[in-house]
Write a structure and sequence with these properties.
About 30% of the residues lie in helices and about 25% in strands. It is built from eight helices and ten strands. It has a single domain (about 30-55, about 75-240), classed as Rossmann fold.
């Protein structure tokens, strides 16, 4: 699904050049659940931006489902982000004047908005928040707000889910509930899930960990016995009744 070949990303800051990625080569198979780890400044956020087609490599090749991303124009990159990739953010990025349902509907406002409300409600039900659809973010816990963020990422049925520190603002219980949802989406629906995290405990719930330092991949190894998170069905009992 994803192939990076000797990818570098250089940013210019005045007369200086900063190499955020340096010769990264990586293959990600369809249906994988993996973590990208590294300290601040290691290049993991730049890697996420490149994988999500928010930025393009300065050199090297990035091939996504058969298309070389570096050769694509802005319109095609936007189309790929819109159709193939769902983004989950640490800070949720919800609009507080809208309900959970309204926030999940947002990606459907552009393009074909047919059955928008139905699709948004289905996405909320996939993360166990159907009964909370009409609540605003201020009426939801942090974990529930992140569930809304995941539902918003799912509403266009992407093939890849990119989660940037998805548990960074959550307590331990809520963190495991979010990871359980991501595991279920990966295991039962075949969604490719890529998590950027600095927490080893979160990475242990994935199938593979790529570690970065100074813009390079320094370790890439499978998780021999991925931990299974509990709590992904939290909130679903009310939905089933």
């Amino acid at each position: 699904m994803i192939e990076l070949e000797n990818v570098s990303k250089v940013y210019r800051m005045g007369n200086m050049e900063v190499a955020a990625l340096q010769g990264v080569s990586l293959t990600i198979q369809e249906g994988e659940m993996m973590a990208i780890m590294g300290p601040s400044g290691s290049g993991k956020s730049t890697m996420m931006n490149v994988l999500g087609c928010l930025d393009v490599p300065t050199s090297g090749r990035y091939v996504l489902e058969g298309e070389e991303v570096g050769r694509l124009g802005d319109d095609r990159l936007a189309e790929i982000r819109n159709r193939k990739i769902g983004f989950v953010f640490q800070t949720y990025n919800l609009l507080h004047r809208l309900t959970a349902l309204g926030n999940v509907e947002l990606p459907l406002l552009y393009g074909n908005g047919q059955n928008r409300r139905k699709r948004a409600l289905e996405a909320l039900e996939r993360v166990g928040l159907g009964p909370r659809a009409n609540h605003r973010p201020a009426e939801l816990s942090g974990g529930e707000q992140q569930r809304v963020g995941i539902a918003r990422a799912l509403v266009k049925n992407p093939s890849i889910l990119l989660a940037d520190e998805p548990t960074g603002n959550l307590d331990s219980r809520s963190s495991y509930e979010i990871i359980a949802i991501l595991q279920r989406l990966n295991r039962e629906e075949g969604l490719t899930v890529i998590i950027v995290t600095h927490e080893p405990d979160i990475a242990e719930h994935t199938q593979r960990v790529v570690s970065m330092l100074d813009g390079r991949v320094v370790k890439d190894e499978p998780v021999r016995e991925p931990r299974l998170a509990a709590g992904g069905d939290a909130g679903m009992e009310g939905q089933r009744q």
